[in-house]
Amino acid sequence: MKRFFKIFLLVAILFTLFPAQNVQAIDPVTIAILAPIALRAAEAAKPYLIRAGLNTLKCFLKMGKDVWEILYLPYGMLKMAFLGPFSRSSLRSGLIYTIKGSIAPAKLVVHTLLLPLMMFGLNINI
Questions:
Q1: How many angstroms separate the CA atoms of 124 and 100, rounded?
Q2: How far apart are CA 106 and CA 76, in angstroms?
Q3: Residue 96 — very low, low, confident or very high, per pLDDT cuts 50/70/90?
Q4: How big is the CA angle at 25 (ends 21 and 28), to the nearest 5 degrees?
């Protein structure tokens, strides 16, 4: 409790010594003058933004697939443990699911690290 009070006191002193800056509105005439320029810039950037959005969506879908594949690990282990002794094909498919489920977290990390690059429009097919 004493530590919390010290931190609170320090934050209060900092806010007292360094108050928030004053903000002033832009003149409406300036906004009216700059609006056509901003619209032209938005039209020029539109194809790049669409491509970046589609690449981001693809990356999110890959990440969702990776999250789903993580569930293969317990499924494959259960399949090997309970159905493996009775059927050779169940043992083999359970091993395949276990391997896929073991690889999925690494794929998820890679796709998560690639997400910012995909947001900037880079299309990497991994």
A1: 21
A2: 18
A3: very high
A4: 170
CA distances from 65 to 40, 68, 71, 87, 111 (A): 38, 5, 10, 29, 11
Q: Return all residues near 56 (Cβ < 8 A) that are at least 6 apart.
A: 115, 118, 119
In degrees and rounded to multiples of 5, residue 10 shows phi and psi of: -65, -45
Record the tokens describing residue 1, joined without a space.
């409790």
Q: Which amino acid is at 102?
A: S
| Assessment of whether the complete model's pTM goes beyond 0.70 | no
Q: Choose the weakest-confidence range: 9-23, 77-91, 105-119.
A: 9-23
Q: Which two tokens stand for residue 79?
A: 């399949």
What amino acid occupies position 106? A
Task: Check whether 43 has a pLDDT greater than 90.
Answer: yes
| Alpha-carbon torsion angle 79, 81, 83, 84, nearest 10 | 100
